């Protein structure tokens, strides 16, 4: 990032008072990590991951985790600290973030997982863990079957094209006998009031973002994504959340010979664009009062 670019970006930001937590949300490939690092270097603080794919220790390149060089420029927490087969949920993340809000260093919480931010600033229902047998049953069902088993009020609150969200709602009802919407309505107060933070959400030009997504996946391939995925081939289990990271199933299919590299690149790019579209829609609906930043101008 050149100095004029740094200066221009800093001028576009809202005031950042000493010690105040900074929240940075936005779609994939929009430049969130670079902004977090810039803020950490300019104003001080520790960068805290809020991206569900970047918690896994097996994925650095394919999840676009900050590089080792970037991590050396400022403290980074909750990146690559979870094994590929370890259970990790929004609740786990929230429990890990709580002590970071009061340990003295300004947290700069950055990522694209909207549920992490909503749990942090809106509260999270204390839902019991899902028994393994119920999860196994849910894994075997089609998306339409799962949707049919979820109440209308819950369906109105979630992205019904996102299997993970629908399956979670199905599992909650079958494990507890209560609809997810009921649990949400009895949510305790949030651990962090967004009014006491500097909340930033990326709202960038659509075509600019699509172009970046295409270039970024090519860059991932150039910097070792294929080697990273191949290293996990003998442990590949498509039912595990770690292996659902965009690009992993596609490159695994190429490694297994069921897809060409061009097909894998195209499918991963399309999946990333679709994911970014869902993120943009979610953030615009849920973060209307956040400070909007557009680095595409």
Q: What would you say this structure looks like, in words?
A:
Helix 3 (68-73) links the parallel strand 2 and strand 3. This protein has 3 domains: 19-124 and 193-204, P-loop containing nucleotide triphosphate hydrolases (Rossmann fold), CATH 3.40.50.300; 132-185, no CATH class; 206-278, Crystal structure of tRNA isopentenylpyrophosphate transferase (bh2366) domain (Helix Hairpins, Orthogonal Bundle). The chain is α/β, with parallel strands linked by helices and 297 residues long. The longest helix has 26 residues, at 261-286. It is globular and about 50 Å long. Strands 3-2-4-1-5-6 form a 6-stranded parallel beta sheet, with helices on one face. The chain contains 14 helices and 6 strands. The protein has helices at 3-12, 32-43, 68-73, 90-97, 114-122, 132-139, 143-148, 152-155, 163-176, 180-185, 206-222, 225-230, 248-255, 261-286, and strands at residues 22-25, 46-49, 76-77, 107-111, 198-202, 291-293. Helix 11 (206-222) crosses helix 14 (261-286). Helix content is 47%, strand content 8%. Its EC number is 2.5.1.75. It comes from Ruegeria atlantica. Pfam families: IPPT (PF01715). The record marks 113, 135 as: Interaction with substrate tRNA. Its cofactor is Mg(2+).
């Amino acid at each position: 990032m050149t100095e004029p670019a740094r200066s221009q970006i800093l001028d576009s930001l809202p005031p950042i008072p000493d010690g105040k937590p900074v929240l940075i949300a936005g779609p994939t490939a929009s430049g969130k990590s670079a902004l977090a690092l810039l803020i950490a270097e300019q104003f001080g603080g520790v960068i805290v991951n809020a991206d569900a794919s970047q918690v896994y220790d097996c994925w650095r390149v394919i999840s676009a985790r900050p590089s080792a060089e970037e991590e050396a420029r400022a403290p980074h927490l909750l990146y690559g600290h979870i094994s590929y087969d370890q259970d990790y949920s929004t609740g786990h993340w929230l429990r890990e973030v709580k002590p970071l809000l009061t340990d003295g260093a300004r947290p700069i919480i950055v990522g694209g997982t909207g549920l992490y931010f909503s749990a942090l600033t809106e509260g999270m229902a204390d839902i019991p863990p899902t028994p393994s047998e119920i999860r196994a049953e849910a894994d075997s069902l089609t998306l339409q079957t799962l949707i049919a088993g979820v109440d209308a009020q819950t369906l109105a609150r979630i992205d019904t094209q996102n299997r993970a969200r629908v399956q979670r709602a199905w599992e909650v009802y079958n494990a507890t006998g209560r609809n997810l919407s009921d649990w949400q309505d009895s949510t305790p107060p949030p651990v962090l009031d967004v009014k006491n933070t500097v909340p930033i959400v990326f709202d960038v030009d659509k075509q600019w973002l699509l172009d970046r997504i295409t270039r970024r996946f090519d860059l991932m391939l150039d910097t070792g994504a294929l080697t990273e995925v191949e290293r996990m081939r003998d442990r590949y289990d498509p039912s595990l959340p770690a292996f659902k990271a965009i690009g992993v199933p596609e490159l695994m299919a190429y490694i297994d010979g069921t897809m060409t590299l061009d097909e894998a690149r195209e499918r991963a790019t399309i999946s990333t664009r679709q994911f970014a579209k869902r993120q943009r829609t979610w953030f615009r609906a849920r973060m209307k009062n956040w400070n909007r930043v557009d680095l595409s101008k």
